[in-house]
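Section 5.1 Outputs to date
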Amino acid sequence: MQPIEFGKILKGGSEGETTLPQVREFSAKAGRQVVKDYVALPALTSLSPATYKSTLMANVVANVLRNIWANAVIFCGHFPDGAEKFTKTEG
């Protein structure tokens, strides 16, 4: 999703025409993942002693924790301009 420039869709023209397929591709991929995580797998586990709700909540918690972890790792590896940086002698 990061390389998609959504503003180009509103501009139209050739830029919008190249961006729209990227948006459709992302939407299809995200839709499949949402159905898998929040519909199919919880429904499948409801056939076992686990319940639909317990699997659904486990998937939600796992996705939230994964996003927090990924954000922390990416931010720590890429300091934005203006962030204070200290050397070993200053630390």
